[in-house]
Amino acid sequence: MTFQGSGPLDTGNVSGGGGGGGGGGRIALGGGAGLIITIVALLFGINPGDIMGGGTGSSTNSASTSQIDQHIAACTVEKANQGDEICRIVATTNSLDDVWPTLMSNYTPPQTIIFDGSVNTACGAASSSTGPFYCPADQTAYFDPSFFATLEQMGGSNGALAQEYVVAHEYGHHVQNLTGALRKGQQLGSQGPRSGSVRVELQADCLAGVWANHADDVSDGQFGVQTISQQEIQGVIQTAKAIGDDTIQGSNSNPEGWTHGSAEQRARWFMVGYQSGDPKRCDTFATNDL
Ligand SMILES: [Zn+2]
User: By three-state DSSP, how is residue 147 classified?
Assistant: First the structure.
């Protein structure tokens, strides 16, 4: 997806974080098990501290953080459109923060931290292995851009909109934090085909679709994008399917262990949001036909 306009991006709510692996000892992920943990936490991460252990909620301050901060500060629309992943994240947050207030009167923007290696959050410590996540306790979305390469290895698309979908999904969790859906979901169980977790995740996919619907129709003074192509939507579908629980678990997939929903469900709920543009259509708590 191509952003319109030119020049500097709004970086007011985005900052760099992480220690470039400096927190090493705190994060113990072993070989094969590490892959499983990565995938469980993927695109969910309500509380990475539970998975990763440790974590003080303090911020880190390292050379790596300031390098990322410098990178962010220099982000422009042009760089985002040329495929600079950090700037693409920033541009997407700009678009999300323009679209969501038009859909929700009580919307307040989250913070976004782009990190490298590991990061401490109010939800505990996390590393790149955690994948992108949203922490409700500090209302912050966390992204390590190296995740995009991982996603591609998993069969996801490297297309711009497919990457932006990841950012929009995490913002979906922020919207859920504001609406109370996140809390509701956490009370309804963390595993199983109709668990709170699956409902929360599918709703976040739907809310990402709602954003995509409106991203290219924002009016004057808002940060717009050029019309989204069918090919770009296919890229999102490819990524949504690559991170479906059944895709990840393979032939032994047992719905009782699902946390995010199947490939088909993730792709379909994104499309519900994208085609309707209506957050009300994303009520995954109102149906058992997920
Ligand atoms: Zn999620």
Answer: helix
- Closest of 222, 213, 162 to residue 5, by C-alpha: 222
Tens-place pLDDT, residues 151-175: 999 999 999 999 999 999 999 999 9
- CA–centroid distance, 81 to ligand 1, in Å, is 25
* Phi/psi at 18 (5° precision): 100, 165
- Tens digit of each residue's pLDDT (9 = 90 or more) over 233-252: 999 999 999 999 999 888 88
pTM of the model: 0.87
CA Rg value for the chain = 17
91 alpha carbon – ligand 1 mean position (Å): 20
Give the closest residue to 101 by CA, choosing from 175, 161, 212. 175
In sequence order, what are the residues at sequence separation of 6 or more whose Cβ sits closer than 8 angstroms to the Cβ of residue 217? none
Distance CA 3, CA 82 (A): 10
In the chain, % helix, strand, coil (3-state, to 5) comes to: 55, 10, 40
10 Cα: distance to centroid of ligand 1 (angstroms): 25
The answer to whether the CB of 242 falls within 8 A of the CB of 156 is yes
